[in-house]
Design brief:
CATH architecture: 3-Layer(aba) Sandwich
Largest sheet: 8 strands, mixed
Order of helices and strands: HEHEEHEHEEEEEHEHEEEHEH
Shape: globular
Number of strands: 14
Oligomer: single chain
CATH superfamily: Glutaconate Coenzyme A-transferase
Strand order of the largest sheet: 2-1-5-10-11-12-13-14
Distance between the termini: 26 Å
Number of helices: 8
CATH class: Alpha Beta
């Protein structure tokens, strides 16, 4: 297979995230990087991927990246459009969605996500973020969750300032104690590599490094002592097709 001369770190991240989606999955998509990766997957290896957006569109097939969950192109290209309460009460909460695809402003070693505030004081934070939206319900009820996020100490923190969406809480058993339906984060895809929860401790462990990235780079970009899998592998570089489709999608 012909390989392109160069893929940026961001493109490598998006391609790796897209590959994590399977053909036929029902995927609850967040705007931004999750939407880009999900639409790339649908245009390449997963043509039967069902994109579900919080606004009530099911089976959306946008010809360009949507600007928001309220972008008209989602309704225009969807198999059906339902109310927001139906999306949450009928599709999401009973566990009918296979994959939740989320981003994060902060992420800790147990996959807990913060998109609410940066700083210790909720009433007077250093930064007030966009907030929760549907992310807490997505993280709680989808059968599994994939997170796509840039890898830096600013994002990968020892403890999130605010738990907007629960990953594995404080560790094994927390999701069950909270009565959360889904199994939690399956993968965290970054511009440096891919992490997955340890089956016993639930702590995120580096399983893949993207081409050209070293272990030391990943450790330096993580705000805790990063665990690295003994069988650490290198991510397959993007194919020419993956890159050309991604670039066309972002330019549309």
């Amino acid at each position: 297979m012909t390989r392109p001369a160069h893929a940026s770190a961001g493109e490598m991240m998006t391609v790796a995230a897209a590959r994590a989606l399977k053909d036929g999955d029902r995927c609850f998509v967040g705007i931004g990087k999750p939407s880009t990766a999900a639409n790339l997957a649908r245009r390449t290896h997963a043509p039967r991927l069902v994109l579900v957006y919080e606004s009530g569109t099911i089976g959306a097939k946008p010809g360009r990246l949507p600007l928001s969950i309220g972008d008209g192109i989602l309704a225009e290209t969807a198999d059906t459009v339902v109310s927001v309460p139906e999306i949450f009460n009928y599709w999401l909460q009973p566990g009918r969605i296979d994959v939740g695809f989320l981003g994060a402003a902060q992420l800790d070693r147990f996959g807990n996500i913060n998109t609410t505030v940066i700083g210790d004081d909720y009433a007077d934070p250093r930064v007030r973020l966009p907030g929760a939206g549907g992310a807490p319900e997505i993280a709680a009820s989808c059968r599994e969750v994939i997170v796509i996020v840039t890898h830096s100490r600013r994002t990968f923190v020892e403890k999130v300032d605010f738990v907007t969406s629960v990953g594995f809480g404080a560790g094994p058993g927390d999701r069950e104690r909270h009565g959360l339906r889904g199994t939690g984060p399956r993968l965290v895809v970054t511009d440096l590599g891919v992490l997955a929860p340890d089956p016993e401790t639930c702590e995120l462990t580096l399983t893949h490094l993207h081409p050209g990235v070293t272990r030391d780079q990943a450790r330096a970009a993580t705000g805790w002592e990063l665990r690295i899998a003994t069988d650490l592998t290198t991510t397959e570089p993007p194919s020419e097709t993956e890159l050309s489709v991604l670039r066309a999608l972002e330019e549309a």
